[in-house]
Structure formats: structure tokens, C-alpha cells
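Regression test case RT-17, inverse folding.

Input:
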């Protein structure tokens, strides 16, 4: 028995309507990035505080991410990596995933980023190791 998710003969939705999700996501990320360009997160408390750091004094894997984006949009890439070393690989992965999502909305297939179980477990291990390493006394990975 065949189960159809749309009427037989109907064309799948493609184009701008189907691309609403990736385009709205890009608009939201762009708005936050513009905000980070104009409002400096290097000023303590200007964007609030990391709840984990405020409660425990432990740097989470995302701590320094806002400062890193601010540094990157101002062209200070070494400072961006210094703020959060996971920022660059995460940004590349996220941009790749977004591009595959957008292409799919227009009916084009491009290879998306790795999403296998082994890859996700490996990324989780790297994130945990990074979090532990940045919380060691005197760590150069601390934001």
C-alpha cells in the first residue's frame, strides 16, 4: 500500500514559499549580527550574562560566542577565535546546513554537513572536551 503525503499528480512546493523557513532564519541571524555589530558585547552585561556562568562560574561551550561574532563582523578574526575557538567550525557547519536547506527549498539537492550518529557523538565529545579545557585554571581557551 502506497501512502501519499500530497495529492497524486500535485507538484511539491518549491520556490520562495518553500524557502520561507531558511530565508526567515537568515533574516533573524542577520538581525542579531547587525545588533552585535553596533552593540559591543565586550561591555560587561550589555547582552546579559550567560546563565550557567552567572549561576556556577563555569564557562559553557558558547561563552564568548557573542564577543566572537562581534570581533568577526569587525574583521578581527584572531580575536573571534580567541573569544570562542568553536565559533569558526560551528559557523562553517551552520552555513553549510543552511545552504543545503535553502537549496532543497528550490528543489536542488546539495550534500549537507555530516549528521551521522558517529559524527554527532564525535562533535559532542569535542564540545565536552573544549568545555572542560576552557574551565581549567589558566586555560588559554577561557573567553
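Golden output:
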Amino acid at each position: 500500500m502506497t501512502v501519499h503525503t500530497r495529492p497524486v499528480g500535485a507538484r511539491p512546493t518549491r520556490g520562495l514559499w518553500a524557502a520561507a523557513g531558511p530565508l526567515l532564519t537568515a533574516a533573524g541571524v542577520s538581525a542579531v549580527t547587525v545588533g552585535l555589530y553596533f552593540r559591543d558585547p565586550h561591555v560587561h552585561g550589555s547582552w546579559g550574562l550567560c546563565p550557567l556562568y552567572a549561576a556556577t562560574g563555569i564557562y559553557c561551550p558558547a561563552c564568548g560566542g557573542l564577543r566572537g561574532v562581534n570581533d568577526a563582523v569587525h574583521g578581527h578574526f584572531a580575536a573571534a577565535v580567541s573569544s570562542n575557538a568553536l565559533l569558526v567550525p560551528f559557523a562553517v557547519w551552520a552555513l553549510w546546513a543552511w545552504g543545503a536547506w535553502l537549496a532543497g527549498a528550490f528543489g536542488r539537492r546539495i550534500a549537507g554537513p555530516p549528521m551521522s550518529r558517529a559524527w554527532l557523538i564525535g562533535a559532542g565529545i569535542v564540545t565536552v572536551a573544549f568545555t572542560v579545557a576552557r574551565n581549567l585554571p589558566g586555560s588559554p581557551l577561557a573567553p
